[in-house]
């Protein structure tokens, strides 16, 4: 099977939105229970909420990794390997962002990427409460849409050769730490829909193995 699959280039926009709404709704109970930061020790710059490295990130993502703005992703309890990879990609230019490309360059260089590892470890250790995320404005789902979204997420769309999202992101949408696949449960709809659009257009192309492009 072609896992390069061009997933979201073939899903109609309404179906993409439906799938996205489901991703936010499913897996709430356990999606972020498995922080996998590998015991990375935190230095003074990231060991506490007031640490200099974290303070920079907190301006958009919140001091505990729960963003108040729906265009910025929640980072709390996100997979460590995924967070580290994205920070490296922003810094190295593999992932483009008008905000993060510049922000990543402001993080002081350190031996063995220690500063980036500490940032990833800090947010991976935070707790994402089920009550911590408000529904994104303008995104609403009825029972029919949620059922359609669940089908797309868990089964895919065979008629369009689209595999199930759950095949990589898990039935609980909690991601895959070793493969740097992100958790999606309780993420902001607006943010994830933006990422799907960017993968579809080619504006973002840094998924592992190019599986999303």
From TrEMBL:
GO MF entries: electron transfer activity; heme binding; iron ion binding
Protein name, UniProt field: Cytochrome c class I
Compartments, record wording: Periplasm
Keyword Transport attached: yes
Primary site of residence: periplasm
All residue ranges annotated as the Cytochrome c domain in the record: 45-127, 144-213
Any matching Pfam family: Cytochrom_C
Record InterPro entries: Cyt_c-like_dom (IPR009056), Cyt_c-like_dom_sf (IPR036909), Cytochrome_c4-like (IPR024167), Cytochrome_c_Oxidase_Subunit (IPR050597)
This protein's UniProt keywords: Electron transport, Heme, Iron, Metal-binding, Periplasm, Transport
Organism of derivation: mine drainage metagenome
Lineage, top ranks: unclassified sequences, metagenomes, ecological metagenomes
A single cellular component GO annotation: periplasmic space
Transmembrane regions: none
Coiled-coil ranges per UniProt: none
């Amino acid at each position: 099977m072609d896992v390069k699959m061009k997933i979201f280039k073939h899903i109609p926009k309404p179906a993409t939105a439906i799938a996205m709404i489901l991703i936010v709704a499913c897996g709430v109970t356990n999606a972020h229970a498995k922080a996998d930061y590998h015991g990375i020790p935190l230095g003074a710059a990231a060991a506490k909420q007031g640490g200099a490295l974290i303070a920079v990130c907190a301006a958009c993502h919140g001091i505990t990794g729960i963003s108040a703005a729906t265009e910025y992703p929640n980072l709390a309890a996100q997979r460590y390997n995924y967070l580290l990879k994205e920070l490296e990609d922003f810094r190295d230019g593999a992932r483009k962002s008008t905000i993060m490309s510049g922000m990543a360059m402001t993080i002081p260089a350190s031996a063995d990427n220690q500063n980036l590892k500490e940032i990833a470890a800090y947010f991976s250790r935070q707790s994402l409460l089920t009550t911590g995320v408000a529904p994104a404005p303008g995104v609403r789902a009825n029972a029919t849409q949620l059922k359609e979204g669940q089908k797309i997420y868990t089964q895919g769309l065979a008629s369009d050769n689209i595999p199930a999202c759950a095949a990589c992101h898990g039935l609980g949408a909690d991601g895959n730490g070793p493969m740097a696949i992100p958790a999606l449960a309780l993420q902001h709809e607006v943010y994830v829909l933006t990422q799907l659009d960017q993968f579809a257009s080619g504006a973002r192309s840094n998924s592992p193995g190019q599986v999303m492009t």
